[in-house]
C-alpha cells in the first residue's frame, strides 16, 4: 500500500458535536455506531490561517485522523481518540459580540430554526412569531413554524385558526406545520424537514419544545432554553452541543439557558427581514424611507392595498420602536 492510501484509510469526515477545553467530540459520518471521537486539533490550525482563538466550533465539518488511543471526555465517557487535521469551510456561522470587538462563533453550519408556537396554553401570538422570524432572517436561517398543541382544539376550531396563519406565512416562504407532541400530529412532516440538516428549536417557555423533541426522537431530552440564545447571552459556547438524530441530522442543544435575550436590534436591517417588504423598498420615494410616515412609501401603499398584512406591518412598526429605544428583539 502506498503511504497515500494509508493516509486515506485512516481519516474520516465528521461533525463537531461538543467542544470544551481544547477537546472536540466528533460524530464520524461513516461510524454506524455513532460513538463520538475525542479529538485534539492539529497544531497547524491553532496558529495562523483560521481565527486563532476558535480554530473549530460545534457544527464544523472536520476531517479526523484516527489515533490508536482512547480518552475520557468531560462526562467520564471513554472514547476513541483522533486528531482533527482539517476544518471544512463553514456554510453559515452564528456569531455574537465578545467584549464589543471580536466576534465569538457559537455554532457553525446551522441550517434552520424550528419556531414553536402553541395554539393554546399559551395562546397563539402572531406578533411574537414575527419577532422570531426576524431573528431567523437576520441570521440568514430558514424558518419552519410549528403550531403546536393542536390536540387542545376542536376540529372546526383547528381549521378556522390554522388556515389564516398558514395562508399568511407560507407565501412568505415559511413552512407552517400544525403539530401535537401528545398525538404525534405533524411529527413525520417535521422529521422529514429535519432530516440531514442542523436545526434549532426556538420558542417561548411552555409551548412544547422539549415535548416535541421527545416526539421527534423518543428518548431525546433536550435542555432547550426558553428562547435559544444565538445572539447574545451569559452562557459560554462550550454549553452548546448537537444531538444526532437517528434518521440523519442534528438538533442544537443549549443546556441550562432559561432566560435570555436575543440579538440587539441595533444592527438589524428590519425591512430586509420581512420578505414581503424586501423588494418593495426600492420603490419608496425616499432612499432612507422608514416606511412609517414618509409620502410616496411603497410599503405603506402595499399595506393599504392589502398586499402586506396589517399584522405584519404592525409588527414592523413595533420592532422599529424597539430599535429606536435600543431594546432587544425579544426579551423575556
Ligand atoms: P417547553 O418549555 O417549550 O420545552 O415546553 P414543554 O415541552 O415543557 O411543554 C410545556 C407543557 O405543555 C407540558 O405540560 C407539556 O406536557 C405540554 N405540551 C407540550 N406539547 C403539547 C401538545 O402537543 N399538546 C398538549 N396538550 N400539551 C402539550
Ligand atoms: Zn417606505
Give a description of the structure:
Helix 3 (126-138) crosses helix 9 (310-324). The chain is globular, with a radius of gyration of 22 Å. The N and C termini lie far apart (61 Å). The strands form 4 sheets. A 6-stranded mixed sheet has the order 10-9-8-11-13-12, with helices on both faces. A 5-stranded mixed β-barrel has the order 1-2-3-5-4. The protein has a two-stranded antiparallel ribbon with strand order 6-7. The chain is built from 9 helices and 15 strands. A hairpin with an 8-residue loop joins strand 2 (23-28) and strand 3. By secondary structure, the protein is α/β, with parallel strands linked by helices. The protein has 3 domains: 3-91, Beta Barrel (OB fold (Dihydrolipoamide Acetyltransferase, E2P)), CATH 2.40.50.140; 94-262, P-loop containing nucleotide triphosphate hydrolases (Rossmann fold); 270-324, Orthogonal Bundle (Ribonucleotide Reductase Protein R1, domain 1). Mean pLDDT is 84; it is low at 1-8, 227-237 and 256-262. 36% of the residues are buried. The site of guanosine-5'-diphosphate has 16 residues, from helix 6.
Amino acid at each position: 500500500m502506498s503511504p497515500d492510501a494509508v493516509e486515506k484509510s485512516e481519516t474520516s469526515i465528521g461533525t463537531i458535536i461538543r467542544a470544551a477545553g481544547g477537546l472536540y467530540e466528533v460524530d464520524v459520518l461513516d461510524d454506524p455506531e455513532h460513538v463520538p471521537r475525542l479529538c485534539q486539533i492539529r497544531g497547524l490550525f491553532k496558529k495562523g490561517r483560521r481565527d486563532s482563538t476558535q480554530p473549530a466550533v460545534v457544527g464544523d465539518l472536520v476531517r479526523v485522523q484516527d489515533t490508536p488511543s482512547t480518552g475520557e471526555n468531560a462526562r467520564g465517557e471513554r472514547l476513541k481518540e483522533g486528531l482533527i487535521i482539517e476544518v471544512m469551510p463553514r456554510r453559515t456561522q452564528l456569531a455574537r459580540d465578545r467584549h464589543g470587538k471580536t466576534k465569538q462563533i457559537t455554532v457553525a453550519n446551522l441550517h434552520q430554526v424550528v419556531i414553536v408556537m402553541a395554539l393554546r396554553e399559551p395562546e397563539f401570538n402572531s406578533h411574537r412569531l414575527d419577532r422570531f422570524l426576524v431573528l431567523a432572517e437576520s441570521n440568514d436561517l430558514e424558518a419552519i413554524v410549528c403550531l403546536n398543541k393542536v390536540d387542545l382544539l376542536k376540529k372546526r376550531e383547528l381549521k378556522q385558526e390554522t388556515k389564516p396563519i398558514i395562508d399568511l406565512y407560507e407565501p412568505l416562504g415559511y413552512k407552517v406545520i400544525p403539530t401535537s407532541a401528545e398525538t404525534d400530529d405533524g411529527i413525520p412532516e417535521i422529521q422529514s424537514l429535519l432530516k440531514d440538516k442542523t436545526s434549532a428549536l426556538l420558542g417561548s417557555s411552555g409551548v412544547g419544545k422539549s415535548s416535541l423533541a421527545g416526539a421527534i426522537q423518543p428518548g431525546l431530552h433536550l435542555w432547550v432554553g426558553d428562547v435559544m440564545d444565538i445572539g447574545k447571552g451569559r452562557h459560554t459556547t462550550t454549553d452548546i452541543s448537537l444531538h444526532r438524530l437517528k434518521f440523519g441530522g442534528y438538533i442544537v442543544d443549549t443546556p441550562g439557558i432559561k432566560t435570555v435575550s436575543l440579538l440587539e436590534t441595533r444592527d438589524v436591517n428590519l425591512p430586509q427581514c420581512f420578505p414581503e417588504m424586501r423588494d418593495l423598498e426600492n420603490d419608496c420615494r425616499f432612499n432612507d424611507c422608514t416606511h412609517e410616515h414618509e409620502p410616496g412609501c411603497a410599503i405603506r401603499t402595499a399595506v393599504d392595498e392589502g398586499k402586506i398584512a396589517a399584522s405584519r406591518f404592525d409588527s414592523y412598526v413595533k420592532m422599529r420602536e424597539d430599535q429606536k429605544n435600543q431594546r432587544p428583539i425579544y426579551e423575556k
